[in-house]
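Form 7-S
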Amino acid sequence: MKPVKIADGVYDVGVIDWNIRDFHGYTTELGTSYNSFLIIDEKIVLIDTVKKDFSDELIANIARIVDPKTIDFIISNHAEMDHSGSLTRVMHRIGEDKPILCSKMGLKNLQRHFSQKLNFKTVESGETLSIGKRTLTFLETRMLHWPDSMFTYLNEDKILFSSDAFGQHYAGCEQFDDQVDESLIMHAAKKYYANILLLFAPLILKLVEKVKEMGLEFNMICPDHGICWRKNPEKIIETYVQWSRQKPEKKAVIIYDTMWHSTRQMAEHIAQGISEAGIYVKPMKLRESNRSDIMTEVLDANAVLVGSPTLNNGLFPTVADFLTYMKGLRPKNKIGAAFGSYGWSGEATGLIFKALEDMQFQMLDSGLKIQYVPDIEGLEACRELGRKTGKKINAL
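Output:
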């Protein structure tokens, strides 16, 4: 992919990873990009690099604009290897003595990633730096989503280089939000938030307030993955605020796995009961739906119902995996319910109940479990659990 001019003297020289389908357990069916930004002024600045595999492509993209050796310094907004993996290769080309600007935590993390002695320089949150006609401002964003994370703001152009925040895993020749179907890119942004940033929702709300206090305005927001937001940058900020407040919609997600279809029957009849209450419901079988897609649906759901057969006196492995994954992301303001089938002992439903209760879900009851194959009465009990869920959602 050739460099793209995003403003006068500002270029995206990053790369597209068309074929990646798994990003440390997160499905990336649309691929992704690793964005890197070049600013041409009296000083020439590179903001972030790319994944190590794409080092040569990044350097070639830079060379289409300037001789890489003329770069004066690099800014590392984030030390994660999809953004710093090419750092040593790039420094070898531009001069290993040139400064790499980063946060204080960035210094610690980068030194742990790279054994080479590089010229790291730390910047403070709120610090400004003149690069000629333009000025950069640095804003520490610790734990969004790593301790070292920071934003870089190009004051005169009102462009925010936002690292992983506001990003999406999306590969495409399109560079901006107004060039892509809005529903497609907003869903990609939602999935990104639900699986990477949900845990940090309280910090995001504080960050937005801090940005308001600083009086920053945005003509463009440029994340390190996916498209840049230029049509209405405030929209993605407002959407992040909405997601971070975790005020759910009238929606239920039923997450389950099954061995001999008994738990599947339970899930489908629970869904029927929820639907009778006029609530949108989505059953999702774990071996057919990746946990990152399920978590995207959980983000704005009012109710989360989890079902499992009992296997070896415990949970079915995919259910245990998902509960661990969801717990780490700390969703809030959820109604919860547990259900499942069993042959002998039936511990799974109780284990689900405890897991959801520990996540501070508002539990509907102690759980519904059915031995072997659900009969007519059992299926009616499932529908009744669904009706109870729908009634609870409608009462909120």
